[in-house]
Amino acid sequence: MFSRLPFKTQKNYVIIGFVALPLLLLLTFAYYPALELIRLSFTSWDGLSPNKPWIGWSNYKEVFSNPAIFGVFKHNFAYFAVGIVQNIAAIYFAVVLNSKLKGKNFFRLLLFLPYILNGVAVAYLFGYVFDTTNGSLNYLLGQLGFDALSKTSWLGNGSFVNYTLASIGFWRFMGFNMVIYLAALQSIPNDIYEAASIDGANGWQKFIRITLPNIYKIIELNLFLTVTGALEVFDLPYILTKGGPAGSSETFVMKIVETAFQFNNYGLASAMSVVLLVFVVIVLSIQRFLLKGKGE
Amino acid sequence: MKKTVLLAMVSVVMLTTLAACGGNNANTNTNTATNKPSTTDAATNKPDNGGTEEAPKVTGEVVFLTNRTDMIDKQYVDYEKRFEEKYPGVDLKFEAITDYDKTLKIRIASGDFPDVVFVPTIPNGELANYFAPLDDITFSNDIYFKDLKANEGKMYGISSGASTVGIVYNKKAFEKAGITELPKTYDEFLTASQKLKDAGIVPLASNFKDKWPLDAWVYDVTTVIGSASDHQNKRAETDTPYTLDNAYGKSWSILRELYTKGFLEADVNSTNWEQSKKDVASGKFGMYLLGNWVINQVIENGAASEDIGFFPFPADNSGEAKAPLNPDFFYAVNKNGNVDGAKAFVQWMIEESGYEDFAGFIPTLKGREPKLPQLAEFNAFNPKFFEPAAPVDAATEIQNKAQLDQAAVVQEFVLSKDPQKVFDKVNTAWAKAKKDLGL
User: Which residues of B touch A243 (CB under 8 A)?
Assistant: First the structure.
């Protein structure tokens, strides 16, 4: 019966059939909750009661006027800074592992493996590494003769606890960034390099003039991932430090979770989530603006 | 014509696929459907039971949502057998979840939750919206904590057990440090700590980093120091609830003193809870300031029961032994569930299950002696117990509005160079929240 229809109508039915289902899923599980979040951000819902009193913009006023809420964003800077270093390292390893090297698949696997591990497991693992008295890092430092260093409280010093945590992120996500760069590098045609070699270009010149421009879009993508990642850190500080010492490793997402589930202020927490969303969009727009046109 | 037939076909196909998406929903619906008749059954049974309290006829399914994931397939199998023996008509089921409070609240908000649960952290005024009053359960003796989860004279929660807070210590470690007599005053406590430190033992395991172990300093040491348990409620009456000379300032200054004298872990920001249990068990750490519930856990981690002792924390120099008496999780009954079956289960848990001994609790039933030998040692000090005061919602409301995490304040207070500044900051936030709420 279906086959008796004109080809064009058949095509349309198939297209509608295939598009409708994913769209429906997307709308119910992504857009509807997002809209609901925005609606909740204008209420003072406590998470339980059936009535959700509308309170207008006051949640948003609270987010921006309370330094205890908005001030934690400065803790995210460490993750951002380390993220930049992480991308540079990823490009470096990608270039090295894209060349003719013995056992390069093994090294690729080795660098990518941390990404596969579960985030909570990674956090626990590093809990043992960074432990002050029984930790493996301090033990290693002690064995190497750095007696003063071997008593460092890696997770207990407010001035660098965020960098300690960010370094775990580095270990975890560098391999992932590297794999993306590798894919981009492999898509650059070899003849460009050959032509450059004939013209007498050295390795560094080839990297700057050929490799970098060709993977520019990918760098942008990786930076996008790094920035959103830096703004949305949660699992590492939540498990390793609980935001301590004295709140110096608290992140914005931790604050949101705390506001919603500990202080039962779902309305304010929703507003904070919306602010985070807007913040990510703003930071990314700035990034796009700064990098605009270079890769075209 | 054909087009319409085809359209119909396509929509049928779509509908069936979508129906698969909704499958879960349908399931839960049937679940509630099967639950509901049993409720009405129970309701119709009620008049018969009215006269005779003995052997109530309860039937249907009773689901208990528990936090003890470790007891599933172990003790609960035995509980189910024994309970169903006594109430043959009941099908008892256990469902264990982690992250209890958050998960339960989400399920309550969805409108469908198990018959017996533990009371989540909600204001007492809202208890009646979700739970059935439990006043008509007749226990063999009076019970503790009747007014804690009550509203307008009706009781909605029954504590699964009671616990107290004091110093859990390793007797071997005390022996090694040459402590012959247990400290009865704060000065003696400091001397004992110094002896432990000199012997190379960490005197007190604070588990500072994990925050929750500091709750003892927020709720219990403060009770002991002020000889009153309503300090949390009293906060609602003032703009400056945290001052250096009240119960909070005094007890947190004790922790601060222990910290500055080096009586806590070498690095308090890098503590490990699981490891600390092993260290107390082995005598590497000397003491805990925690509830009696920790005793069994230390024993599970390798200590002999006779090596672990328990005494009241001497927070001052009066020499008088004082201790708080705290409830554990409160059983509550879903008012839209199998109420009669659930009540029978709660009563059975309190009276017959033996759960309080398994968990190392002081029994909720007054007059029943705890089986734990350490609790007997504790009681030999003849401590004056302070039962908690019924909570006042105002204080909780202000605290939530001010986004105040007291354990985090303890951390800041101990680590800060100027504790008064920490209090000033907290008090400002408190006063503002109090004003915003119009309290």
Answer: 408
